[in-house]
Amino acid sequence: GTTDDRFPADREGPVRDVATGPYAVAAHLVTNDDFGAFAAATGHITLAETEGWSFVFGGLLPDDFPPTRGVVGAEWWRAVEGADWRHPFGPHSDLAGLGDHPVVHVTWFDAVAYATWVGGRLPTEAEWERAARGGLDQATFAWGDDLVPDGVHRCNIWQGTFPDHNTLDDGWLGTSPVAAFPPNPWGLHDVAGNVWEWTADWFDDGRRQRAIRGGSYLCHDSYCNRYRVGARSSNTPDSATGNMGFRVALDQPSA
User: Which of 96, 120, 222, 229 could cross-link with 248 by S-S, CB 3.0 to 4.6 Å?
Assistant: First the structure.
């Protein structure tokens, strides 16, 4: 947890000790190539494919894209027919050049299905945060307290004025390859930015939403600086968007 109280509804605090058993967490987010191998081997069809639509950030759509439904209060999200993990920006798009980018438009259930297939599971929030901190106790970010140490960007988030202008100082508008930025001290990439990560835990006792961690390429300090390692958010387990993915955890035998 953290003492940061900017988003009280997120209940990031208090800072507390949580015991975990031995486990391992993947260094990288699950990529499109990874998920493609799973889908080919199992015939898995995601919920976005079944329902025929998913949420896409409007800034990634062509200027002449037909009008779509938006989200009240978050109009940058567009409900795009034909958007799914194979077509991340809608039916006009494909995965060309995106094989090493994180898979998106996957629900919590899709993530669990993949993790089970590889003999793993989703990490708990405590496991995710411990691994993301990389031994840096209570550091703001996965690499320390300076967002841009020595002027070097360490994660894929939004620069400029959200949602209208991204200066692309970090080099990316949407997702980036899963090893595009240096890892944290324990070798994990993308624990800040790129895509939100599903975890195994419920967000609260209401058991309606699952906890997600890490922030995404849409996070900006003006409204969502949840790329901090102690930050958290949530979504319903049947939700799919263009900025949510996951990584896999594995149980390890006790020494």
Answer: 120
Task: With cut-offs at 50, 70 and 90, classify the pLDDT of residue 6.
Answer: confident
The dihedral built from the CA positions of residue 72, 109, 230 and 169, taken in this order, carries a sign that is: negative
* Residue 165 near residue 173 (C-beta atoms within 8 A): no
pTM of the model: 0.94
Name the maximum alpha-carbon separation found in the chain. 59
Matching residue, tokens 């209570």: 138
Question: What residues does 186 pair with on adjacent strands?
Answer: none
pLDDT tens digits for 171-214? 999 999 999 999 999 999 999 999 999 999 999 988 899 999 99
Residue 113 CA, chain-centre distance (Å), reads: 17
Residue in this structure with the two tokens 């894209």, named with its chain if needed: 65
How far, in Å, are 58, 61, 107 from residue 76 at the CA level? 5, 11, 20
Would you say 137 and 155 are in contact if contact means Cβ atoms under 8 Å apart? no
CA distance 211 to 193: 16
Q: Is the pLDDT of residue 13 over 80?
A: no
Report the alpha-carbon distance of residue 23 to residue 251 in Å, rounded: 5
Q: In sequence order, what are the residues at sequence separation of 6 or more whose Cβ sits closer than 8 angstroms to the Cβ of residue 40?
A: none
Q: Report residue 58: phi and psi, to 5°.
A: -60, -30
Q: Which two tokens stand for residue 104?
A: 């998106």
Q: Please tell me the distance from the alpha carbon of residue 76 to that of residue 171, in angstroms, as a whole number.
A: 21
The CA distances from residue 251 to 20, 26, 126, 187, 248, in Å, are: 11, 12, 14, 18, 10
